[in-house]
Amino acid sequence: MESGNVSRSSSPAGGSGRVSLTPPRLIEQFEYNFSSNGASGKILKVPLPVPIPGGAREFAERLITFHKLPVYVHDDLVEKLDTFERDVVTQREDDAAEKALEDVRMSDELLEERVSRWADLFKNEHLLYADSVARSDELNFGAAYHSLIHSPALGTLLKLEHTYAMDMQQETEKKEAAMKKLESKHEAEMHKMLSNLGMSHTDQDVTILAGSHFQEVEAANLKWKNILDQVRESQRRSYRDFVMSVQEEQMTKPDSNEALTSSRSGAESDNILISGWQQENKEDSPPAPYRYEESFTIYLGTQLKIEHNLRLLCCDVLDLCRHRVSSSSLTGAAPDPQRLQMAMSLYSTSLSGLVLLVDNRISSYSGIKKEFAAVCQQSTDFHFPSLDQQLKKICEDVRKGKQQQEKRKKAVAEEMDEDIAPVTFDLPVSPRRRVAEQDSPILSSGDYYITKHSNLAEVHVVFHLATDESVRQGNMNSRHPCLNGLRSVVHMATRCDIRTLTVPLLLVYDMSEEMTVNWCLRRAELIFKCVKGYMIECSTWVGNEPMTIQFLVPRGISQDLFDQLSAMLPNIFRLSNTLNLVAKRKRTYSAYT
Fold it and tell me: For the whole model, what pTM was predicted?
């Protein structure tokens, strides 16, 4: 059998000036060559409507019945009809597209009409088949807050936030005082019992007393946790209700200023407000911790040079998260001016991120994670869930991911006829340890999880990067899992509009004896070069958006080491130095000399 030949009619593919998603059914000439009874070269010529009514299979059966064709050509005829129909429809669509583009090139008015029509068709198509999802309360609140924070209501909102922060600070101080009093009471009771040990008290009495002390501490912690959670929930609910009510009043009464505490214009009030806060903070706020800092401007890229900012910082990592709250009374309290910048950039494309080095457990019970959790609990987060809620959700997602990964491994093992049984099922594990491992999944070095915050000083997003003791060794290279995780963090920050990212330069927060000057210089050079490579990778597929990278070094380093690190940075990155051009003066000679 031979393939069918096609001859097409000269009918137009569509009307002029119209866009059709379904091509009209036109008649095309279909030719089919086949052999019958040993004789080859027989040709069937029929007019064929395209698209074929009823499908190619039904039309092939009709042709075989009507023209008395041999039944063994059925499958081949169906295949030729499918191919013929597909080619004709594709050619029609190409012709229609070429004609539409040609018409657009000839007329600007037709271009606008075509773009509008295509946009409507695309929108209607999505509305027809997409799931109808109502705008959530979170989106409504975010839009309302972003609108108010860029209006004269800015001062009112920040004053309200600061008042709530002072209330939380007072409740936290009450908790600390109560726990300190309870601890002193327990120390006195234990000291009294130990002094009489062997006379009126035994070791069993000491054990019983220690157990009762532990239960009292647990009960007190639970009590104060419930109290603080209630205060946060009440503040969050009242603050969000206030924002939505003010936004609704401004939309219904655009000329009304009843919701604002000041009748001054936006720009003037902002300037007066900021200067007033700064003056109050100079008098009332505690002194800011010292910070070494040096800034650089660099250019990265092969053909298109993109300007970026680099900053070398020497401070405590939690100083970037901790607000300096005034200890004055509520009537004279003034918000930290840093809140102004963070509030205005909260719902923007210029976010700030921080890389926080943590262990392989998703929790907030030890080390720097506990200190960071204490900083987050100093004030209420009105925009995002609390840190505990975010960590709980992350644990659930990690657990689900590990379960899916185990299922895939098991499926692959079954396909390979391998009997692989998990070792943990054979080893005896205590119930308490099993519950702890289920509640807090174990991460690998280089893994990271993300938390969002609106109540920190200079940070919106925190990347919790899991590390281990290998970061303190001196043989780290660019293939280390922590550096692979840092690469993923830089890529994620670039994709999520995080324009300021703080990175620990030495991948440690405290100095030890083995961290000599040479160790610090080698580690800093490695991080500088790796981050430079990561930034160049991001610039190839993100665009010409500038970034600010802050390299954080521990506070314990000396001024001399800080100067050496600062001098190393220009040798690795290309700085934007000014070029001074000096014109040479030509000598002129006179005939009358």
Answer: 0.68
